[in-house]
Design brief:
Strand content: 25-35%
Strand order of the largest sheet: 3-6-2-1-9-11-12-10
Mean pLDDT: 92
Largest sheet: 8 strands, mixed
CATH class of the domain at 3-175: Alpha Beta
Number of strands: 20
Domain ACT: 267-343, 349-410
CATH architecture of the domain at 3-175: 3-Layer(aba) Sandwich
CATH topology of the domain at 3-175: Carbamate kinase
Helix content: 25-40%
Radius of gyration: 23 Å
Binding site for substrate: 47, 76
Binding site for ATP: 7-10, 175-176, 181, 186
Keywords: Amino-acid biosynthesis, ATP-binding, Diaminopimelate biosynthesis, Kinase, Lysine biosynthesis, Nucleotide-binding, Repeat, Transferase
Structural class: alpha/beta
Function: Catalyzes the phosphorylation of the beta-carboxyl group of aspartic acid with ATP to yield 4-phospho-L-aspartate, which is involved in the branched biosynthetic pathway leading to the biosynthesis of amino acids threonine, isoleucine and methionine.
Shape: globular
CATH superfamily of the domain at 3-175: Acetylglutamate kinase-like
Length: 410
């Protein structure tokens, strides 16, 4: 007997026919004693369609963040109800639960909430009745009972968190790709599928743009020690397992993957004094607005003037608000101007093997220089190196870097 959480994304449940196919697949693979919890996203492009609806009644609908959450949580409710109906029409007892009904508790950061706890009593009750429990991903409720969505990739986070809370044996993430690759296979020639990857490496890849997993979902897996199996909705082949340590021989690769993120913007705060407290003013104001900052560089214009420029990156969706936040404190920090550049992208390499391997950064920079791609900002961690480049160079950059570290891939 196994307790399994299975998450299906929007492309997997995009049409009524696909929903029925998901139900058939689950029933065909289910052992008699298996207890199954499903976590489901909104159908296809439903979330984008709901955002487009909001934009037709308000120019900047995200300023009404609570109402955006009220709107967007309806998408998952459609898919969980339809999937439950599909199961029941096939003779399988099932019940649908919203995030609130499943006990998903969040903070009050509308449109990008964080899970603060799960009380899965109702989930256990329904499993004990013999039901497949179908839960709406991407959503929970704050202490006041307001709906809160979990941001991009939030359904993955919901699934892994629920798996941890109910003590599941594994969490399977079904998507439109058949695992995790050394680079986006839609962009990189010869991208190779990994059989396994560690939580730390996957977390870094997800944080740096590997869209197949959301960083917080990997954090949840690591927290609860839940193996995450990323696999395809459309085949029965095994995919990639994310776990604490390798159990197969994949350690020979110094670099595990090349990632890219085109959903970034560069913010330049120009002409600020190079004195203590300025960086604190800028980044504490951004933190108060719940805006995550990634790459940061401070460049001194000249030693004589003691004037500096503060440059950093944020998610593109946060760029307009970031600009407003900094402009509000511009007089306080004596900034001459605040500029936004949306024509940028981030390319990164990730791998625990780079620790103790000199020359990795030089090889990455050399690959970019050979194709005349300029690097605007560089940032590093123990297991990653990231470069900010012009947005139009992403495909070429990913390929030349991938060819450098995976020369036998194609």
């Amino acid at each position: 007997m196994a307790l399994i959480v299975k998450k299906f994304g929007g492309s997997s449940v995009a049409t009524p026919e696909k929903i029925k196919n998901v139900a058939k697949r689950i029933l065909s693979e289910k052992a008699p004693d298996d207890r199954i919890v499903m976590v489901v996203s909104a159908m296809g492009d439903t979330t984008d369609d709901l955002i487009a609806l909001a934009e037709q009644v308000a120019d900047t609908p995200y300023q009404y963040a609570r109402e955006m959450d009220m709107l967007m949580t309806t998408g998952e409710q459609v898919s969980i109800a339809l999937l439950t109906m599909a199961f029941r029409s096939m003779g399988q007892p099932a019940i649908s639960l919203t995030g609130a009904m499943a006990g998903m508790k969040t903070d009050s950061a509308h449109t990008k909430g964080r899970i603060i706890g799960i009380v899965p009593a109702r989930v256990h009750q329904e499993l004990d009745k013999g039901n497949i429990v179908v839960i709406a991903g991407f959503q929970g409720t704050d202490p006041a009972g307001n709906p809160v969505t979990l941001g991009r990739g939030g359904s993955d986070t919901s699934a892994v968190a629920i798996a941890g809370a109910i003590g599941a044996d594994t969490c399977e993430i079904y998507t439109d790709v058949d695992g995790i690759y050394s680079a986006d296979p839609r962009i990189a020639r010869g991208a190779r599928r990994m059989r396994e990857i560690t939580y730390n490496e996957m977390l870094e890849m997800a944080r740096l743009g590997a869209g197949v997993m959301q960083p917080r979902s990997v954090e949840m897996g690591q927290l609860y020690k839940i193996p995450i199996h990323v696999r395809s909705t459309f085949t029965t082949e095994p995919g990639t397992i994310i776990r604490e340590e390798y159990t197969v021989e994949e350690k020979s690769f110094i670099i595990r993957g090349v990632t890219h993120d085109e959903h970034v913007s560069k913010v330049a705060v120009l002409g600020v004094a190079n004195v203590p407290g300025v960086a604190h003013e800028i980044f504490s104001a951004l933190a108060d607005a719940n805006i995550d900052v990634d790459m940061i560089v401070q460049s001194l214009r000249s030693a004589e003037s003691n004037i500096t420029d503060m440059i950093f990156t944020v998610a593109s969706i946060d760029a307009p608000e970031a600009k407003q936040v900094v402009e509000r404190i511009a007089d306080k920090i004596n900034a001459s101007s605040v500029l936004i550049d949306n024509d940028v992208a981030k390319v990164s390499i990730v791998g625990a093997g780079m620790l103790g391997s000199p020359g990795i950064a030089a090889r990455m920079f050399g690959a970019l220089s050979r194709t005349k791609i300029n690097i605007e900002i560089i940032s590093t961690s123990e297991i990653s190196i990231s470069c900010l480049i012009k947005g139009g160079s992403v495909k070429e950059a990913v390929n030349v870097i991938h060819d450098e570290f995976f020369p036998d891939a194609h």
